[in-house]
Design brief:
By secondary structure, the protein is mainly alpha-helical. 57% of the residues lie in helices and 6% in strands. The longest helix has 46 residues. It is globular and about 80 Å long.
């Protein structure tokens, strides 16, 4: 088959055989290939069909190897001994039999809770949860890359998947009960389905998978889905040769399907969709012009949540790849243009920028996981750039290969160092939370019980208590309500060092929390033990 999608006529040989470019095959295969040719996609600008190359490797073994390595790294480096973080305890507690549900704030969506429910129903082990999510993450990345097999060469897909999978952000959060990695996989799949659908009107699988991928994004992260749909719908309406109004309907259908749960909950718990959006904006500090680019760069040093982002930027080298990303993307776009498939770089780049806008310019804090969908999309053009640097080096090809290899090894070393530091802190955190839970149990704070105050959300999960806050983003009770709780069950207020308790708890009994390095100097103010009701005299 020629590069332009045409096929030369078969030349009959003795014995009823035919050749294509000197390669013999059975007549039945020639007839089958002819039928496949009649179903070939029509030529669309920016989406040239990949040339048939009998020497090209099959994508499945290579992509499966990349995703298997992704799973192995998660299980080996992140899963052992790690504990649940703040957001994870909120999500896991919603579907766990081993802890009461924590307060579920307005911005959150329940998609990740549906994914982890079968595991949390059976066990409270964070390690088991990590391993299951690592396996699912490998499958999710494989499925997303597999959709692109008709759009990009295998080497580009394998390298792009490896680049994304080896970011410390990806490795750290993929086995966690967090929605951001799943938003990234589904976003990558949705853009691939969109490109396949505009290239080939007969690609039914792409048209079916497109709204499903958008629905997964909406189920996990509704704001991400809105920006994704806006970007793809604009492409479907603005680009003349991509103009497919039906695709816009599919995008909207996927958004509504995945966001239905969030919308219904808005009316049942918050008094309406706009009321929930308003409350979600309040919890996030308000939505408006806030330049958070520097905050995102600082957070690459291993900061999970930079709020307020006044931490020192002690290791600028951790952001070196972030600054080279635009250059490598431009190189990938140039490589795609020369390969006569510019859309495979330009559309992912455009969608990545659109989806990064709210996290770079509209909120006043940063978390590196927010940009995972953008990184997943940009990984493919970057891989295209690196592959072209190696393939087109000519006499300098060995030198170009060496330079790229050295740069990648240095990049991996930096990512590994940040990942190691984060996982070590997470393991120490788990030990401290368990020590505090043991101390509280010794003070008589046992289920059913209620915790409030500093770090109460996470400690309550390990203690088996409810967590209720009287202020902040998780405000879910008033001081009067907390006093009413104290009349029914044990209640403790966690207060950090050099901080006075609120007025309503000053008469409570203070007790130091020993055994935890992170909580040295913390005090638990214990409400008076509720009196048991008197039994009626016989």
């Amino acid at each position: 088959m020629e590069e332009n999608g045409t096929m030369e006529a078969p030349r009959p040989l003795a014995g009823g055989r035919a050749t294509y470019g000197g390669r013999a095959t059975e007549w039945s295969r020639a007839i089958r290939d002819g039928r496949a040719l009649r179903r070939a996609p029509v030529q669309v600008y920016g989406l040239r069909p990949l040339p048939a190359d009998v020497s090209a490797p099959s994508p499945l073994p290579w992509l499966a190897a990349v995703c298997a390595l992704f799973v192995i790294l998660q299980v080996a480096l992140v899963a052992p001994g790690s504990g649940l973080g703040w957001d994870e305890t909120v999500y896991a507690s919603q579907v766990s039999r081993h802890a009461p549900p924590a307060f579920f704030s307005a911005p959150r969506a329940r998609g990740i809770t549906y994914l982890i429910a079968p595991v949390t129903e059976l066990t409270s082990s964070p390690t088991v949860l990590r391993i299951v999510l690592a396996l699912l993450s490998g499958a999710g990345l494989l499925g997303a890359l597999w959709i692109w097999r008709r759009l990009l060469p295998t080497r580009v897909l394998a390298l792009g998947g490896a680049l994304f999978a080896t970011l410390w952000i990806t490795l750290y959060y993929a086995p966690q009960a967090m929605p951001n990695p799943w938003s990234a996989y589904a976003t990558l799949a949705a853009v691939g389905c969109f490109l396949r659908a505009v290239r080939d009107r007969t690609d039914r699988r792409a048209r079916v998978m497109l709204p499903l991928a958008v629905a997964v994004v909406a189920l996990m992260r509704p704001p991400d889905a809105v920006w994704l749909v806006l970007a793809l719908a604009a492409a479907a309406l603005v680009v003349p040769r991509w103009r497919r109004p039906a695709l816009v309907l599919l995008l909207v259908a996927g958004l509504l399907l995945g966001g239905a749960d969030w919308i219904v909950e808005a009316y049942t718990r918050y008094g309406g969709l706009f009321a929930r959006l308003h409350r979600a904006a309040e919890i996030q500090g308000g939505i408006g012009w806030n330049l958070a680019v520097e905050d995102q760069i600082r957070s690459l040093d291993g900061v999970g949540l930079c709020r307020p982002c006044d931490v020192p930027w002690t290791h600028p080298v951790t952001a070196a790849w972030w600054f080279t990303l635009p250059v490598l993307f431009l190189g990938g776009a140039l490589a795609a243009v020369r390969a006569k498939r510019p859309a495979t770089a330009l559309l992912p780049g455009a969608v990545a920028v659109v989806m990064a806008v709210p996290y770079l310019f509209l909120i006043d804090y940063a978390a590196p996981r927010f940009l995972l969908p953008s990184y997943a999309l940009l990984a493919l053009p970057v891989a295209d750039c690196l592959c072209r640097l190696i393939a087109r080096g000519g006499r300098l090809r060995p030198l170009a290969t060496l330079l790229v290899a050295v740069a990648l090894l240095g990049h991996l070393a930096i990512q590994g160092a940040v990942l190691t530091g984060n996982t070590a802190r997470n393991r120490h955190m788990r030990q401290d939370f368990r020590a505090v839970a043991t101390a509280l149990h010794g003070l008589g704070v046992r289920p059913p019980c209620t915790l409030s105050g500093e770090n109460a959300v996470q400690i309550a999960y390990y203690t088996g208590c409810f967590s209720r806050q009287i202020g902040g983003p998780d405000a879910s009770i008033t001081p009067e309500g907390l006093l009413a709780e104290a009349a029914r069950r044990p209640v403790a207020l966690l207060v950090p060092p050099r901080t006075a308790p609120p007025a309503f708890a000053r008469a409570w009994h203070p007790a130091p929390l020993s055994g935890a390095t992170r909580f040295r100097g913390y005090r638990a103010y214990l409400a008076p033990v509720p009196k048991a009701p008197k039994r009626a005299a016989r």
